[in-house]
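Worked example

This section walks through a single chain of length 305. The input is the sequence exactly as stored; nothing has been trimmed or padded.
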Amino acid sequence: LLLPFALPPAEHAKDLLASLDAPALAMLLARAQPGHRIDADPFAAALPHEVLLAGTTTDNSPPVARALMQRIAPGAADGYWFVLQPAHFHVARDHLVLTDPRQLDLDDASARTLFDAAKPLFDELGHEVRYGNPHHWFLRADDWHDLRTCTPDAATGHNVDVWLPRGTEARSWRRLHNEVQMLWHMHPLNEQRDMRGQRRVNALWLWGGAGAQDAAPHAYAGMLAGMPSAGMPRFDDALAASALAGDWGSWLAAMQEVDTRQAAPLLADLKSGKLTQVTLQLTDAQRVREWQLSRAGMRKFWRTP
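Given that input, the structure is written out below as C-alpha cells.
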C-alpha cells in the first residue's frame, strides 16, 4: 500500500497525530518492522512516490506521455510526446507560483474550448497536439527529447522559474507558451471564470516526455488515468490535494477515509490469513518510509498502536 503525503510535516506532526483517528493504520504500523528509508533531493524532477511508481532512475519527469495517451486518447503515436496540462500560475510577491492543477475545476467543455483556441498555434509550428481529457493533453515535439522537465506535483506551490523545462529547445517552448498565454489572457472563457470566482487558465505545464524507445511506466500511467494496471501496487492519492495546499484539516479527514478504505481491509485480510505479508510505503515531498508486516507480526500484542 503506497500512500503519498501520509507523512505529516515535522512542524505540524505532533498536533496532527494527536487529532488523527486512523485505528487500522495505527495497528498495522505498530505491528510492523521498519524497512527502507529514502530521502530525496528537494529539487528533484519528480516526487518520491512518482519515482517509485514509474521506476525511473533519471533526474527528469517520468517518461509517461505515450503510456498515458494510449489510455485516455488512443491512436497512432509515432515520435516523441509530452503531457500538456492546463494550469494556473498565481502571482507571489516577486515571482509566479504553480497552483495544484487539481484545484483548477476545469470541465470538459471549457477544456476543449481552450484546446481548440490554442491548437492553431501548435499547428503553425508543425507540432501535433491531441486532446485527452480536461487535465491531460499531449504534444508531439520530436526534436525536444533533451528537455529536462518536472512533474506538476513536484513544482506545485513553488517558484515556476526553478521548475520550468531546461535544455536546448527550452527557448522554443517558452516562446510557444507565451503565445498561448497571450491568446488565453483575453479569452471570453477566462473572463467568465473570473466572474464566477474561478481561477483563470493562464498557463500550460509541459512534462513526461517519452519516445518509442522509453520503457512505459504503466503503474504510473494507470494512476494518472485512474485506470490501475495489472500488478500495480495498491495506491491511494486522496491525501495529495490537501497536503499540497497545506490544508491540514481536510488532510485529517482524508486520512480517516484512507484508513477505512485501505488500511482496514488490509488489517482484516492479515488477521484472516487471506494475506500473509503487507508492505506499507508512506511518503511526503522528500521522503519515503517503509514498513513490512507479516501475519505473524500481528501477534505482537505488546506493541501499542
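What to look for: The mean pLDDT is 94.
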